[in-house]
Amino acid sequence: MTATDPSINAPGHYGRFGGRFVPEALMGALAELDSAFEEARSSPDFVERMAYLRRDYGGRPTKLYFAERLTDRGEGARIYLKREDLAHTGSHKLCNVLGQGLLTERMGKRRLIAETGAGQHGVATATIAALLGMECRIYMGEEDTRRQHLNVVRMELMGAEVVPVTAGTRTLKDAINEAMRDWVTNVDSTHYLIGSVVGPHPFPLMVREFVKVIGQEVRDEVRQREGRLPDAVVACVGGGSNAMGIFHPFIEDDDVRLVGVEAGGEGVDGTRHAATLSGGTEGILHGARSFVLQDEYGQVRPTHSVSAGLDYPGVGPEHAWLRDSGRGEYVAATDTEALEGFRLLCELEGIIPALEPAHAVVPALRLASELGPGGIVVLNLSGRGDKDVDEVERILAQLAGHR
Amino acid sequence: MSVVPDNAVARGIRAANDDGRAALVIYLPAGYPDLVTSRQCLEAAADGGADVLEVGFPYSDPLMDGPTIQAANQVALDHGYTPADDFAMCVELTGSVPIPALVMTYYNVAWHYGGVDRLDAFASAAADAGLCGAILPDLPAEEGGPWRSVAAKSGLSTVFFTSPSSSDDRLAAAAEASTGFVYATSTMGVTGKRQSLSEMAAPLVSRLRAVTERPVCVGIGVTTAAHAREVAGFADGVIVGSAAVHAVTEGGPKAVRALVADLAEGCRRGYGRP
Q: How much is the ipTM here?
């Protein structure tokens, strides 16, 4: 099959997914954002400033590293790691916040708000707010402020105000609700810097355009080194920004498999997981039609993942379309598999990964073995794991106690 | 008045206007503090002088709502009530009150009733429960086509939102899509009690007057009889939610009746006196 980008024909819609299901109060701001983005993306001064900051401030392009020992372990295809963990702030998140931050400046707004789960997007937003001299407030589920305390400190050091959200399940989805409520109230002065390819149009499209540099770099680098495109790119999927970033430039290359790995928690058969495409149903959440983890009445379910960044009951509408059209493959890795991936990268490669991309390691090994020697797999190592060290230590101690 | 509206919601509002007052629209969530009491509170609101009722069906992620309504919704959800339970309550409610009632919920709840993407099932159930229309605060006019068509088939009135930030084109589109009344949000923000009424409400209503003859009701932050009186000076209807929920919490049906009587007095005294 040949897949083409459906959003070219119907802006904001990906097949039957996407759209703008938000209170009327936000529709003006979305239209303003849409036209500001369309104007900026073709404006040389915007494009040049973003390229300059990506390079000199953000550390792009990030390296593509051949993971030799991990490859040996897989006994199959060559595994490359796209080292987003080496970018400034320690994850791929800077691409998106840089783009949206510069756009906010262009719209004449001086206040940024954002939601965060693991804290990586909050840290990236606080970083850009400091760089651009903007006021910044980050909404973070109370549960996550505990799990990711180090990131709370980092955000505060850069001058952001971190607001613990105590509503609902006290995690990422509730932080998004709270940020939306703030935005409805302060839309004249404030830009809501959404951290993933989710939300109402133009967010899924705009965020994708800002993060697709990841896949473009991979494409160039793999071609140079291997003389061809990879057989598969693999990435973890929560909302799905790092995955969309690496997938999108390959969508029209039918021979490149696009494999998304969702958070399987304690198993997709039960309810203690966050694997929206594997275990969810269609619905409307946070402004877009997509897949949602919800009950039969449309009430959004609490989710669970060892990784705060994947602990989200929705997923970007373009991922829903990729899955629906068969172009994307989506699998789930359990908490246990994620911890195994975490350990493997630590012990075999001397890289401490974030728990989010750690989910993609075991599925990448499986793919490598399936493809066999001669194959090429690229795993998007979307962030580094310093933030997770305490949590991993706590879980390992718990597991040891159970033995 | 020149045109007689063809639906119970608009007729209810115009009847109040013909009687020399702004219509009073009261929102209360189904299932708070429990299903039976919520029905009694809605009946008390009708008894106290409300002209239209809005029955909230709780949703897990109510992003247009402030803390008061969020908390009440959560109580109802924690009881485990389903939309079918809420509709069953509405059957009794609409059988006992002489005024029109609408359901107010988020789009995903309506979309899931009776299966995935079954707005038609939701609309039929609402009509069967004696409800006259529905309000879906996260459904803007341009995504509203499917809902408008099933609502029309089931004889339900539609209500779309307008905001001080809406362009004139958007005001016209929302008004055109709204057969019951046009919901004018008094301020930029979520539901909740406010100290004073926003200065943005009156200009929004006068902008709406330029594009529609349909009834315009003002909500979000209308808290006291003084606010109601002020809004009655320029709008066809006054919508009160969080303050009514607060009355439920404080004193159940009796407190609701007293608050509504007070608000209704404001709607009469202020009507047509900007």
A: 0.94
